[in-house]
Amino acid sequence: MTYTNGASNGTNGHAASPTPAATRLRKMLTEGNELLVLPGVYDGFTARIALEVGFDGLYMTGAGTCASKLGQPDLGFASLNDMREHAEMIANLDPSVPLIADADTGYGGPNMVARTVAQYHRSGVAGLHIEDQIQTKRCGHLGGKEVVDVDTFQQRISAAAATRKKLNSDIVIIARTDALQTDGFEEAIRRLKAAVTAGADVAFLEGINNEQEAREVCRALAPTPVLLNMVENGATPSWSVAQAKDMGFRIIIYPFAALAPAYEAIRSTYKRIKETGVTDIDPTFTPKKLFTIVGLKEATAVDVAAGGQLYGKV
């Protein structure tokens, strides 16, 4: 399904404002039943590549943000400011393409959750997920996780929903539970249902172990859309887009889709430099190609439209 950006001429002859990314994402989830496929991006370059390929939306991975922005593991190192700043940059590379961003635990009690939602909304983020781990959280595919009680989780989601309403925002609130590993499947479902009651738009069961759990969470939460976190070589089996759609998911995210190949390719090139003294980089990947990927044509057009000639010979 294709969604326009909402820019059209009004009766007064002026162009209408483009549809906010959050509204576009909400329509994707409420109109039709297509599976929304979101590649994981962790910086401006990976986001530009995903936009070049042509996805309907992007996902900003928290683990990737910790690794790329901070050089740290996903153990709660990233603050609201770290995540919000990163998300704003990615969301505004192409504001017509919705971005879902990790928001960890919301970074505190109800007031901090409210602040997080407000800041993500003002930064152009279309959707965010808030989880039920304790504040010193960790990646959902690591062991040793701890979760807060269901009332605290529900308060987080309630604060998020109230803030969305106060701001008259369409930002999509995704409730994530990590309770499957700590308290079992039935408790995880109970928490997701409580979160939906509190105002969540999408349910997210982290660390699904098998197809039975996958199908059951989609059935139990219906008609609420359910998100699948497809972390290769993690707790969840590797399923294709077609399999995820058949099981009933409405969103699938791929947090490791850029991280893993980037590590292999970069490490291989660095080793080659150290061992042979050359990079053997593809000769077609020139500096101009790099800059074209990250917006050279757009930057040139702005300069020309303003009457400049600064980039005329690049």
TrEMBL record:
User: What is a single molecular function from GO for this protein?
Assistant: methylisocitrate lyase activity
Region named Disordered: 1-20
Q: Which CDD domains match?
A: ICL_PEPM (cd00377)
InterPro entries (UniProt xref): ICL/PEPM, Isocitrate_lyase_ph_CS, Pyrv/PenolPyrv_kinase-like_dom, Pyrv_kinase-like_dom_sf
Q: Which reactions are catalysed by this chain?
A: (2S,3R)-3-hydroxybutane-1,2,3-tricarboxylate = pyruvate + succinate
Q: Which family does it belong to?
A: Belongs to the isocitrate lyase/PEP mutase superfamily.
Give the protein name, as stated in the record.
Methylisocitrate lyase
Source taxonomy lineage? Eukaryota, Fungi, Dikarya, Ascomycota, Pezizomycotina
